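Project outcomes to date are best conveyed with an example. Our students and postdoctoral researchers have been running inverse folding experiments weekly, and each run begins with a structure described purely in tokens. The record below, which covers 444 residues, was selected by the lab manager from last quarter's runs and is presented without edits.
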């Protein structure tokens, strides 16, 4: 077995050197489908080792190639730095444990994971060069998520709940279904090809069917909210899915899955009038731990919090609360600025794709929908700080950043306000990768 692992690792290293794009494409299904493995007392994932190989290959390429850069680079580095400062501060306070190796309390490993996500973003945006590359990556990503859904349905027959591979969060197949719904919605609302619409429609319906089997009510609510927002803003005919799904659910879902899903109606009822399957639906109870830890951080370490890994991710039930508890007001400000910049980048990319009638528009829309899904479900669950969910998030973010570079930064623009310049001269002006752009408050 160790010799086989070495052989596969060597083959992947050669692939990463010869074809970084192919190596990244292999990484996506590995992230989705590979379980954890234990090496001594340390728990590792195969994609951690594969990403290490990719980073070495990327660093070697950086010796001869200049990075193109994205609007998110500086804030992502700030995100890493504030995480490091907060964790060192927490270690001085005694709230963060840098020597621990348990995955829930190992502050050092949580910091390395944050750095890994950001480096992965850089590797992805430097390797994926064009809109055609993004299209291939999105399709492989969707196939990987569909594979995770298929795996989880097999687990449902054995365990009564759709489960991901070993080590994943218990309701994580719901995340895969939500992301595939988001990407399929992008293809449906923006694609002009009938075949694409038919395939994406089938994937949308299949993902919506799989979603309740995860028993993750947060993912169900977030997906339905995302579907409603996308339908009302971009294609209202999609709203028909909601009543049709309500009518068909009793025919295609087991009674226990339906009962779990319907328990959502007691989200604001402290004492339900009937027994409900599974606890934790009462919203004030879900928000309570985050508010409690937040108050304690405000009293003891308001600026930099307690450090990454100071509180187990599952104890807070909110990514927003986790960001504040782990990194304090300073870290939460960096996080908020990053979210704002991501939102603006998505809006600019969508507008540019629409104005240019670009074939990349369905993928821009789908990636936007994924980010909307993350924003919604992060209210009641850790997201970008978790291993698999974090890799999915930075995959989505990296692909959107590549499209932004292609459609916004590299497109010809008309310079305004300069007398004597012809339209033809204006059309020769480009935003090129690596060239500093300064316009208003945008500087990168």
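After processing, the design step wrote out the following sequence:
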């Amino acid at each position: 077995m160790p010799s086989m692992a070495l052989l596969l690792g060597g083959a992947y290293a050669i692939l990463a050197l010869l074809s970084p794009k192919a190596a990244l494409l292999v990484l996506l299904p590995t992230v989705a489908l590979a379980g954890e493995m234990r090496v001594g007392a340390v728990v590792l994932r195969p994609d951690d080792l594969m990403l290490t190989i990719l980073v070495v290959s990327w660093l070697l390429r950086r010796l001869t190639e200049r990075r193109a850069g994205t609007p998110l680079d500086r804030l992502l580095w700030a995100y890493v730095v504030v995480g490091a400062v907060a964790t060192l501060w927490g270690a001085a306070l005694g709230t963060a444990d840098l020597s621990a190796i348990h995955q829930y309390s190992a502050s050092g490993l949580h910091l390395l994971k944050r750095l890994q996500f950001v480096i992965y973003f850089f590797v992805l945006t430097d390797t994926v060069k064009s809109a055609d590359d993004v299209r291939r990556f999105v399709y492989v990503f969707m196939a990987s998520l569909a594979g995770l859904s298929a795996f989880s349905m097999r687990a449902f027959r054995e365990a009564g709940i759709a489960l991901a591979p070993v080590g994943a969060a218990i309701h994580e197949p719901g995340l895969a279904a939500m992301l595939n719904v988001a990407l399929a919605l992008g293809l449906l609302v923006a694609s002009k090809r009938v075949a694409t619409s038919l395939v994406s429609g089938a994937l949308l319906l299949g993902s919506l069917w799989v979603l309740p089997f995860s028993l993750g009510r947060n993912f169900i609510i977030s997906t339905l909210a995302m579907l409603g927002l996308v339908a009302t803003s971009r294609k209202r005919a999609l709203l028909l899915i909601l009543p049709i799904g309500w009518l068909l659910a009793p025919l295609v879902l087991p009674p226990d899955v339906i009962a779990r899903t319907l328990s959502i109606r007691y989200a604001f009822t402290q004492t339900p009038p009937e027994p409900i399957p599974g606890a934790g639906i009462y919203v004030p109870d879900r928000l309570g731990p985050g508010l409690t830890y937040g108050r304690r951080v405000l009293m003891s370490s308001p600026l930099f919090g307690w450090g990454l890994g100071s509180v187990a991710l599952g104890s807070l039930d909110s990514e927003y609360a986790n960001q504040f508890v782990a990194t304090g007001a300073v870290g939460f400000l960096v996080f908020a600025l990053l979210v704002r910049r991501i939102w603006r980048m998505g809006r600019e990319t969508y507008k540019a794709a629409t104005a240019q009638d670009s074939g990349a528009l369905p993928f821009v829309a789908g990636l936007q929908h994924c980010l909307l899904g993350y924003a919604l479900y992060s209210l009641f669950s850790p997201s970008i700080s978790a291993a698999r969910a974090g890799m999915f998030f930075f995959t989505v973010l990296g692909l959107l950043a590549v499209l932004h570079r292609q459609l916004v930064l590299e497109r010809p623009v008309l310079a305004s306000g300069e007398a004597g310049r012809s339209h033809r001269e204006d059309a020769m002006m480009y935003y090129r990768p690596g060239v500093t752009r300064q316009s208003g408050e945008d500087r990168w």
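The longest strand covers residues 37-39. The longest helix spans residues 319-355. The training component of this project remains on track.
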